[in-house]
Design a protein that fits this description.
The chain is built from 16 helices and no strands. Helix 4 (63-75) packs antiparallel against helix 5 and helix 6 packs antiparallel against helix 7. The chain is mainly α and 275 residues long.
Length: 275
């Protein structure tokens, strides 16, 4: 494997020098757009210490070498540059990334999942992570990937849901399916009707799924006098997302959620100046 190079550290030193040479030329806001451009240009710049540009340095590596480099960067606490990440993402999830997802190291697992792109190859590993003892951040990252390919993940999600495994995660995945499937619709409706404590979340799943057959049930629910302000807001959003409309004027002036939101949204009154 090639030597580990802290390309971000090299860029930071060049940037510091550039900023000194151009002091006063840019406002703080302008620097925010200038720095990314400089970083991209740096990626194409030949560096004697690397014998290549940062982008070229990683482009020369095999899939296995890239994965080994990523692992070494984490283990030796050397910053992982965007150039390494971008090259790995372009490789469409090498098998080595799957191995890192199973490593048990939270940092490596999260990075590997993020770098796998939209490939369906690791879907089985993602489900294993969801059903295992991975931490919440890892599970959330895996769910996001499965949601992006929900139709391909549907059958496994349905099976795990029926087994009672991580049902909320499975509902979240199923709600992103684009192909209409009565099994999915029936599950989302059942959960909406039978889990009142999760009403806002389950309403959002119906909105995401996008099947207008849910509208009558949503409209019936929002018209109840016992719903709170947060539930009302999520139900109204779901109804409108499905092409419906709810126009009845409601009074939530004594609802604790409404009062809390209003209190948080109020700007402090400026003190009057005295001479």
């Amino acid at each position: 494997m090639k030597q580990l190079i802290d390309f971000d550290g090299l860029f930071d030193r060049r940037l510091e020098e550039y900023m000194r040479e151009n002091e006063g030329k840019y406002t703080e806001k302008q620097w925010e757009s200038v720095i990314p451009k400089l970083y991209r240009k740096f990626g194409e710049t030949f560096l004697k210490s690397a014998g290549n540009s940062p982008k070229g340095y990683y482009a020369e590596m095999s899939d296995d070498e890239l994965v080994s480099a990523l692992k070494a960067h984490i283990e030796e606490d050397v910053p992982v540059s965007d150039f390494l990440c971008n090259e790995l993402e372009a490789r469409n999830c090498p098998d080595g990334l799957l191995a890192l997802m199973k490593s048990g190291d939270g940092r490596l697992v999260t990075l590997a999942v993020n770098l796998a792109g939209d490939s369906e190859k690791p879907f089985g590993v993602y489900f294993d992570l969801l059903c295992g003892d991975a931490d919440g951040e890892v599970k959330d990252t895996a769910v996001e990937r499965l949601k992006n390919g929900a139709d391909a993940a549907k059958e496994r999600a349905l099976a795990l849901y029926s087994q009672g495994v991580e049902r909320e995660y499975m509902l979240e995945i199923l709600s992103r399916c684009k192909e209409r499937d009565d099994r999915v619709f029936d599950i989302l409706m059942k959960e909406f009707r039978t889990a009142p404590e999760e009403l806002p979340m389950h309403a959002s799943y119906l909105a995401s799924y996008g099947d207008e057959r849910a509208l009558p049930t949503l409209l019936e629910c929002i018209d109840r006098d016992d719903i709170n302000y947060l539930e009302y807001q999520e139900l109204k959003f779901a109804i409108e997302a499905l092409g419906g409309e709810y126009t009845r004027v409601r009074d939530f002036s004594e609802d604790p959620y409404y009062l809390e939101i209003m209190a948080q949204s109020q700007m402090p009154v400026p003190e009057e100046k005295t001479d």
